[in-house]
């Protein structure tokens, strides 16, 4: 990975590098192990996957069961191994009466949560949690597909992306489209004309969905030589599996494995039949919090879409506040992507309660089952004993939100924003605002 991003890290952090505080290493696992085991090293901290953490602590990608009676055999000089790791990140869409433009805006925000960094993030949207009985659900899903249609595909640069992508397709074909009524698997990227709706009977495309190589053949059709974007290596469309039940999602493996490759699943909770929108909202957010806490792997971050109507209704707002308090995640973002919570470094970032909370009898967030990690990062205010950070944003941001996929001046605005964070002057604020207005 450093071969790809290392030069950018060195350029962005050259002040630390030149002062001798930072060194970016290039090479294989062996070189990294030599650096970690240097006699001068007394602590290890990493961000990455739980497999990386386990390789450091146990010497292999998986931890042994506690019943084996083994303990980490770290060098005596190593005082601590801490990690900020991964998560199957959920986004909860609160059911209400949305205006058409509100549905469109929410869909754009959610699409950006998937496409950011080609979805190679521990905070990328993985599971979209909705209410099955929500009258506007189908309208929302179509807005979601339209937002993904408008998002050009990006290069999947992370190692193993294509394999993960194909595995997602195969599991969706096996456990979703073949068994759950009303479910869909769609591919998106660049325009509505490129949308591909994948069903079990793809006779018109001469591809048998029972073929073990169906995913590979579909990809071949997507990246044909006459394709709109040309035969760009590893440019994967956005993949959206909708209409999954919790049981189907569990069989697909998306509740306990990060996709990390531009794929997401909508899980529609059949949790209430209430006609009254306030009661429906209350029952859904309670069920959604329970589902996320109990079914999804990891506790790093999550987000909620809360429309203005809910915020104006005292009973519905109270239900959402209870949901936020109940969610066991280190960062909870309301009406903005989780990567915004990551970017505000005054907030804590890490597993719920820095990995110190766990169910009775569980090994969660310990060396035996490290999951999202065992520490806080960021927290520049250095506040102790934090359970979670909660970030609230207006439903719509003006000027055009910097995190939206269709922001027209993202690069220039981002550069000025970083300068403002360093200078914190009226001049830098004005310069940032001018560029933001052009987004």
Automatic annotation (TrEMBL):
SUPFAM superfamilies: ALDH-like. InterPro entries: Ald_DH/histidinol_DH, Ald_DH_C. It comes from the Eukaryota. One of its GO terms (molecular function) is oxidoreductase activity, acting on the aldehyde or oxo group of donors, NAD or NADP as acceptor. Gene3D superfamilies: Aldehyde Dehydrogenase, Chain A, domain 2. This is Aldehyde dehydrogenase domain-containing protein. It comes from Pycnococcus provasolii.
